[in-house]
């Protein structure tokens, strides 16, 4: 006699979303990236400060001698290589040094216990480095935004303390209306790397260390721009309401969510998320050069050698391909960023991933653009239309 059939489960387990799957993988991968965080921070600081030619940098190193340790050569090599980059290569390299969020497609589990939230200031995202009596800020395309004295450690000639090589690197947004750098993250402080520290610890250091300086004071002769921290909240009901509806000294551009356990990961990561709607941002939907909303959704993809069109995700998502005849006729090259229009009826959702059956080539995006759109950005744009 056959055994009775097993009773059916009273409910079906909800499917894990694609974004949640990538969040779990990103947390697991952190432990395998514990390379020399100090060397990474030094390489970034050297690259941000480099304003001379590679030849000049090489000459200076020769004058100082070649008795440096192996990782010091790596730092010098990275700085020199970054100085050689031009055009789209430079924009892409500098943009990849910043921790960039995915767009929030779904609410992560354990949101209240595992995530922070804050209202993102509107303005120019940049990295700020202070060292050897000067402070330099660079926007995502690598261009210098400001070169100025500041009250950050070693940020002005009047305030040089500790080793000459001591430096600090802050992830900021420059808010032009009040000429303030709002600090949203900290990468390094007085030469101590925070790459492999959790977001919860980094936010604690931002608040505690900034109070040790006068960087939050109004501008003065040796302190050209004011620095300020953004209020960080727990992702409970009270914190979400404060970030979403509370008043801020700056213009809001959406909400930023950081996983408390996330290390500072350069590039796009699902452990940082951005949410925008018309109540907390002026820039919910992409607009054209005149500020008008296009009748069709646009997205930017990167062209590969085999003609495939991919997003900026790691690993990338393929959204289509171009024929070799069209690529040659249009004088396109691998690595080019291309803008396409998408009709709503050509979009489908399969296993949590968006699929687009038809892309209409529009042209190349603005030259300042460094990345293709992420899968989450495309998904969020489609939902807002």
From TrEMBL:
Q: At the top level of its lineage, which domain of life is listed?
A: Eukaryota
Name the Pfam families for this protein. Answer: SPN1_m3Gcap_bd (PF21974)
- Tell me where it resides: Cytoplasm; Nucleus
Q: Name one GO cellular component term.
A: nucleus
Q: Which residues form the Snurportin-1 m3G cap-binding domain?
A: 97-272
Molecular functions (GO terms): RNA binding
The segment annotated Disordered runs over: 1-73
- UniProt record similarity statement: Belongs to the snurportin family.
Classification via InterPro entries: Snurportin-1 (IPR017336), Snurportin1_C (IPR047857)
- Identify the keywords attached in UniProt to this record, alphabetized: Cytoplasm, Nucleus, RNA-binding, Transport
Composition-biased stretches, type Low complexity, lie in: 40-58
Task: Set out the biological process GO terms recorded for this chain's protein.
Answer: snRNA import into nucleus
Protein's UniProt name = Snurportin-1
Transmembrane annotation, as ranges = none
Name the species this protein comes from. Answer: Paspalum notatum var. saurae
The record's function comment reads:
Functions as an U snRNP-specific nuclear import adapter. Involved in the trimethylguanosine (m3G)-cap-dependent nuclear import of U snRNPs. Binds specifically to the terminal m3G-cap U snRNAs.
């Amino acid at each position: 006699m056959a055994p009775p059939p097993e009773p059916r489960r009273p409910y079906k387990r909800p499917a894990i979303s694609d974004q949640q799957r990538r969040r779990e993988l990103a947390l697991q991968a952190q432990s395998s990236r514990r390379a020399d965080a100090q060397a990474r921070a030094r390489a970034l600081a050297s690259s941000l400060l480099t304003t001379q030619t590679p030849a000049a940098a090489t000459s200076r190193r020769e004058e100082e001698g070649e008795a440096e340790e192996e990782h010091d050569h790596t730092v010098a090599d990275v700085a020199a290589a970054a100085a050689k980059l031009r055009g789209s290569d430079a924009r892409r390299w500098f943009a990849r040094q910043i921790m960039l969020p995915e767009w929030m497609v779904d609410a992560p589990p354990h949101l209240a216990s595992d995530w922070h939230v804050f209202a993102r200031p509107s303005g120019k995202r940049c990295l700020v480095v202070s060292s050897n009596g000067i402070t330099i800020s660079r926007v995502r395309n690598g261009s210098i935004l400001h070169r100025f004295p500041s009250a950050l450690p070693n940020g002005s000639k009047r305030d040089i303390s500790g080793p000459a090589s001591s430096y600090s690197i802050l992830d900021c947004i420059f808010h032009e209306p009040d000429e303030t750098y709002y600090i949203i993250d900290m990468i390094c402080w007085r030469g101590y790397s925070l790459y492999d520290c959790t977001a919860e610890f980094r936010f604690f250091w931002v608040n505690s260390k900034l109070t040790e300086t006068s960087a939050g004071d109004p501008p003065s002769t040796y302190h050209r721009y004011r620095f300020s921290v953004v209020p960080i909240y727990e992702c409970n009901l009270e914190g979400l309401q404060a970030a979403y509806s509370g008043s801020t000294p700056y213009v809001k551009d959406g909400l930023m969510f950081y996983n408390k356990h996330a290390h500072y990961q350069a590039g796009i990561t699902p452990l940082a998320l951005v949410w925008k709607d018309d109540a907390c941002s002026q820039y919910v939907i992409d607009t054209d050069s005149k500020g008008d909303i296009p009748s069709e959704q646009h997205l930017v993809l990167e062209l590969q050698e085999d003609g495939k069109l991919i997003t900026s995700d790691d690993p990338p998502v393929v959204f289509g391909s171009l024929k070799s005849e069209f690529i040659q006729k249009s004088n396109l090259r691998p690595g080019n960023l291309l803008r396409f229009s998408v009709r709503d009826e050509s979009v489908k959702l399969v296993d949590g991933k968006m699929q687009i059956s038809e892309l209409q080539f529009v042209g190349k995006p603005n030259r300042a653009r460094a990345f293709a759109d992420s899968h989450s950005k495309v998904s969020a744009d489609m939902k807002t239309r």
